[in-house]
Amino acid sequence: MTPSAIAYRGRFAPSPTGPLHFGSLVAALASYCDARAAGGQWLLRIEDVDTPRSRAGAEEAIVAALARCGFVWDGPILRQSQRQAIYADALERLRAAGAIFDCTCTRRDLESAPMGAAGERVYPGTCRDGLPQSLTTRSTRARCAQRLRVDSDVVTFVDLLQGPQRQDLASEVGDFVVRRSDGLFAYQLAVVVDDALQEISTVVRGADLLASTPRQILLQRRLQLPAPEYLHVPVAIGSTGEKLSKQTQARALPENPLPALLAAWRFLDQPMPEAAPATVADFLAFATRAWSRVRLPPVPMLPAPRGG
Ligand code: GLU
Ligand code: ZN
User: Fold this and answer.
1) Ligand 1, pocket-test mutation among 21, 209, 244, 245, most atoms within 8 A of CB
2) CA separation, residue 237 to residues 269, 284, 293, 295 (Å)
3) Which residue's CA lies nearest to atom 6 of ligand 1?
4) Which of the four pLDDT bands, split at 50, 70 and 90, describes residue 4?
5) HSE of 173 in the Cβ direction (CA atoms, 13 Å)?
6) Domains in the chain, please, with CATH?
7) How far apart are CA 104 and CA 122, in angstroms?
8) What local confidence, expressed as pLDDT, does residue 134 receive?
9) Measured by CB atoms within 10 angstroms of the end CB, which terminus of the chain is less buried, N or C?
């Protein structure tokens, strides 16, 4: 099926842990142009499921910066912090299917577990066959994390930019957390539920999430939800090789975002306009027409432009 034959729905899903910066602008611009170039919709979702990491005013700052950039989203903004009941429902379905188990391991308990290819510790399976009797009191269970049981699940998919991907979840990730011991739902569960309920056809986001995608595909299978297509664009890295992120204090966009939009466009190796656009609206109209998937650099990371 050609992209125009399906109803394209894309999204941008920032976490409100700080202001919009060059790295997140690249993801916003790529997801926007890919959706609009296909005549599709583009939705905005605030991923504030991890409430302790959310910063006061960050959501407002991100939304204001996106508006200043000229992005227009379809429908109301969805906020994960208001969707606990929906995630709880998904968790119940997993539990009823025998797909999850309680885990009482502390961070300390897992310190000696080997590092997986995804850069996280592989869960050694400590609690997967049931907790010791002494620990199964009601109060312990309330403080338990819930993990999705991973068996011999090898996930393969073809990323629209990065090409064929394969992850052996058992050896590279292990059983993974879907609800944390503090009661918060994990990003992996929330994002899968929301992408499905919002009928997202195509996820365009930074390649730092490439290693999370097989977990999300496994959750889609366990919950019998459709899988969107994935396109992971390169992430911008700083001079010492670290990902630009709100946590590493990447700078907020300046008042006039047009130079940053053009820098993000160049970062994605897209065809430059002949004459400099006068306004962000002019730029986005051009960008939507000129957007070229085949010109995107098929690599997971690239140096950020200087001054970004
Ligand atoms: N909320 C995630 C972030 O800001 C992005 C999640 C996604 O696009 O799936 O890194
Ligand atoms: Zn455990």
Assistant:
1) 209
2) 16, 24, 21, 20
3) 13
4) very low
5) 25
6) 3-84+196-303 (3.40.50.620), 93-179 (3.90.800.10)
7) 16
8) 56
9) N
* Residue 174 region by backbone torsions, left for phi larger than 0, else alpha for psi between -120 and 50, else beta: left
Q: Residues with Cβ within 5 Å of ion ligand 2? A: 103, 105, 126-127
Measured between alpha carbons, how far is 125 from 127 in angstroms, rounded to an integer?
A: 6
Task: Please answer whether residues 175 and 128 qualify as being in contact, where contact means their C-beta atoms are separated by less than 8 angstroms.
Answer: yes
* pLDDT tens for each residue of 281-302: 999 999 999 999 999 999 999 9
What Rg do the C-alpha atoms of the chain give, in angstroms? 20
Write the pLDDT tens digit of every residue in 187-242.
999 999 999 999 999 999 999 999 999 999 999 999 999 999 999 999 999 888 88
Do the strands 100-103 and 235-237 form a parallel or antiparallel pair, or are they unpaired? unpaired
Residue 211 CA, ligand 1 centroid: distance in Å: 13
Determine the distance separating the centroid of ligand 1 and the alpha carbon of 3, expressed in angstroms. 23
Nearest to 148 by CA among 86, 220, 242: 220
Among the listed residues 165, 231, 225, the one whose alpha carbon sits nearest the alpha carbon of residue 202: 231
